[in-house]
């Protein structure tokens, strides 16, 4: 068996613990993982939720939020079990290699990096919107993206995630505080004569658009397994990962539901996306000013995970991973810089960037968050618990796993169709914006 096969398909842990190593990776507690995930997942996407309620209605939206929260917790369990059974798995690419070989590894690894870069670009745009609001549009948007990109680059530079844990605590606290400030602002300034939709009859395109765009509103708001693999790999006790998943999912589901309902009830069907633009200027500035730290940290964390995937792929089990070598730090710095630079260029120069995020969410998040978890369960039952007979002895688990795969496929196909149709319609109607020009 080759060394590559052992690394990608064997049982050797991706990070080897040794006291002589200068850089120690397995240092995260489950509490730190919870904070890092909350800081990243409960971020700018939440600001689009209230506008989705105007399309699908309060009742269907809340049902969908709760259902996807429970569904995300279930798929997290399947993901964690797969990681514990295969400690060598560091990314979705490693998981794909185990199940289907090198082609699947490259496709899933590319998807992870691409989605992380798109996520970083989305956070940079949110940071730019925050700074523009705070400065009364007094500075060129392109310069603001560059400034926020520089901050995200510095945040992404620490080599291990435990060095980012304290920022995760601050980031999770500020996005929660920003949400409460926004709700107070909406409650103190309700829109007169506002109209609300309790339930709505809508065509497929509009309804699916509401739950997938912008920024994959509902798709990306829950646990995305590409980054969770990386986080679990740096935990002291990977067996505690489910505690982190519970903490994230319960907090996120409750917070999403409360925030979206309160904002929508006080603003009504005229609520904008992001919802903070519907607040009076003073409240919008206060909320954006508080949330800015979260946007920057999330951009840095997205970049860090993308760089970590490539870095470990190049240097897995080498001295450059565990020691402060010149080559190791040079490559790591270049990877972080490249990730932020590409994200900033996409955000600045691509006029349909927000639509592309919707496509990326449909193509990758649908599978990473939901669909692939079903394959994980089927693979491990087949190979570790008796093959086809093992599946037959577990009819409920097998059925749910198959339905999970079908759900991921449906969201992927339907979300891609809706996003492409949206782009075509925007071009046809002349609604595509221009790149930032000062």
Considering the chains and any ligands shown, give keywords for the structure.
438 residues, mainly alpha, 0% strand, globular, disordered N terminus
Task: Explain this structure.
- The chain is mainly alpha-helical and 438 residues long.
- It is built from 17 helices and no strands.
- The chain has helices at 3-9, 30-41, 49-56, 58-85, 92-100, 102-134, 141-156, 165-188, 204-212, 225-233, 241-267, 281-315, 319-322, 326-349, 353-384, 387-392, 395-428.
- The chain is globular and about 60 Å long.
- 52% of the residues are buried.
Summarize the structure.
With 438 residues, this protein is an all-alpha fold.
Structural class: mainly alpha
Beta-strand content: under 5%
* Beta-strand segment tally: 0
Order of helices and strands: HHHHHHHHHHHHHHHHH
Distance between the termini: 57 Å
Low-pLDDT residue spans:
1-9
Envelope shape: globular
How much helical structure, as a percent, in the residues?
over 70%
Mean of residue pLDDT values: 86
| Radius of gyration from CA coordinates | 21 Å
**Biggest sheet descriptor:** none
Quickly count the helices: 17
């Amino acid at each position: 068996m080759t060394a590559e096969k052992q690394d990608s398909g064997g049982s050797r842990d991706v990070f080897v613990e040794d006291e002589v190593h200068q850089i120690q990776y397995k240092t995260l507690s489950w509490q730190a993982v919870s904070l890092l995930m909350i800081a990243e997942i409960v971020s700018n996407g939440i600001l689009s939720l209230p506008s989705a309620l105007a399309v699908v209605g309060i009742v269907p939206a809340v049902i969908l939020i709760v259902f996807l929260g429970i569904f995300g917790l279930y798929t997290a369990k399947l993901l964690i079990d797969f990681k514990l059974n295969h400690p060598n798995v560091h990314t979705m690419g490693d998981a794909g290699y185990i199940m289907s070989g090198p082609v699947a590894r490259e496709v899933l690894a590319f998807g992870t990096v691409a989605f992380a870069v798109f996520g970083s670009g989305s956070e940079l745009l949110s940071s730019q919107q925050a700074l523009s609001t705070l400065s009364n549009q007094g500075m060129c948007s392109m310069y603001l993206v560059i400034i926020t990109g520089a901050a995200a680059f510095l945040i992404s530079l620490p080599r291990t995630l435990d060095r980012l844990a304290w920022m995760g605590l601050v980031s999770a606290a500020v996005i929660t505080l920003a949400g409460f400030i926004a709700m107070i602002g909406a409650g103190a300034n309700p829109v007169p004569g506002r109209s609300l939709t309790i339930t709505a009859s809508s065509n497929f395109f509009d309804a699916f658009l509401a739950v997938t765009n912008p920024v994959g509103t509902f798709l990306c708001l829950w646990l995305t397994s590409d980054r969770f693999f990386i986080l679990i790999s740096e935990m002291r006790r990977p067996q505690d990962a489910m505690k982190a998943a519970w903490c994230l999912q319960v907090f996120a589901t409750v917070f999403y539901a409360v925030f979206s309902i309160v904002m929508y009830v006080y603003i009504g069907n005229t609520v904008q996306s992001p919802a903070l633009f519907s607040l009076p200027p003073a409240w919008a500035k206060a909320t954006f000013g508080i949330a800015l730290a979260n946007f920057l940290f999330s951009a840095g964390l997205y970049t860090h995970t993308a760089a970590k995937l490539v870095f470990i792929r190049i240097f897995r089990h080498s001295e450059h991973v565990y020691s402060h070598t010149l080559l190791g730090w040079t490559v790591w710095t270049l990877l972080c810089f490249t990730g932020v630079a590409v994200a900033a260029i996409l955000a600045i120069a691509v006029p349909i960037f927000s639509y592309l995020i919707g496509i990326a969410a449909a193509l990758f998040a649908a599978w990473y968050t939901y669909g692939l978890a079903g394959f994980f369960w089927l693979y491990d039952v087949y190979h570790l618990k008796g093959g086809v007979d093992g599946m037959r002895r577990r009819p409920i688990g097998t059925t749910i796993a198959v339905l999970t795969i079908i759900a991921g496929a449906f969201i992927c196909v339907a979300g891609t169709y809706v996003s492409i149709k949206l782009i075509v319609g925007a071009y046809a109607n002349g609604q595509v914006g221009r790149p930032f020009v000062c």
